[in-house]
Amino acid sequence: MTIQLPVLAKDFSPWQLGAPLYMPAHRFDLTAIANGEKLPGLRSMIFCTEDAVACHEIDSSLRHLGLCLQGFEDTPERFRFIRARNPEILARLLDLPGIEKIDGFVLPKFTEKVFHAYFDQLQGTAFKVMPTLETHEVFDYAAMCALRDGLLQDAILPSVLMLRIGGNDLLNLLGIRRPKGLTLYETPLGNVISQLVTVFKPFGFPLSAPVFEYLNDDKTLQKEIRQDLAYGLTGKTAIHPTQIPLIEAAYAIDEEDYQMAQSLTAEEAEAVFRMHDAMCEVATHQRWAVDLISRGRCYGVNMSASLKECAGLSV
Question: Where are the domains of the chain?
């Protein structure tokens, strides 16, 4: 059984995004999806004007998106983003009537070269952004450190919700495709993801989990989600609505982890204590505990009979 904890306010916590679903900006049912009439369980969506839209469809897609924006209703627990094709398309998007109904933008192929082209336009707005790491520079440690330092600027940092990892684009640069039955961590990207985690996570940047591109291999998908979580990645992108329940079910936290996190964040917690045959140390496990509780508020706790008894629920 999974019990839901109190829902967080709409404060752009990365865990609240769930499994974001990408969809082309010219999709006919955008308004129905944006308003929750279709796919009501969707936590976040990304309307794409980049890879999912052919060059000859750009103008018509922007016109369609502009018309759809007029019908977007306020949705406190559904997050809506647009993936801008490039800085020039971002400028056109920002001019659309109703663009304030969007929570923010995904910035593809994000590098230092386009840094100012994007952020100069967004300065003074309330939009959140999710830059995507998916170019040759991702394989260059020094380039990623420089990009991180740029994002840490006081005028930039508050607008950065998270960084997205473009798994398929990075594999394409290597000239390979993920083989069926293998997780990303069993390809050369495993080392790349490790490096991105160590470059960005210590400085407070959440990182998204890349897509799993096969729809008929739930076993490998579940294995990859466990590895995503072990690497500290959040918000695994879904390529189809059928993946969303699988991804988000895996984000529910285990009872023992929840109990340890609660104990670690308690005011009266001892500096070091033993719990569930594990060492718990407030000084070194605090960030983990706070993040786990945040995740639990969004996805619930997998309760065992003992926890249900403590909560006063019937077993």
Answer: 2-251, 254-310
What architecture (CATH level 2) is domain 2-251?
A: Alpha-Beta Barrel (3.20)
Assess contact for 243 and 19: CB atoms under 8 A. Answer: yes
How many C-beta atoms lie closer than 10 Å to residue 157's C-beta? 13
Please tell me the number of Cα atoms within 13 Å of 258 on its side-chain side: 21
Per the listing, tokens 């260059």 go with 140
Give yes or no for a contact between 12 and 44, defined as CB atoms under 8 angstroms apart: no
pTM: 0.89
Per DSSP, the three-state class of 287 is: helix
Per-residue pLDDT of 193-225, as tens digits, reads 999 999 999 999 999 999 999 999 999 999 999
Q: SS3 sequence, 135-194?
A: CHHHHCHHHHHHHHHHHCCCCCHHHECCEEECHHHHHHHHCCCCCCCCCHHHCCHHHHHH
Residue 72, Cα to own-chain centre: how many angstroms?
22
Among candidate residues 247, 258, 198, the one with its CA nearest the CA of residue 224? 247
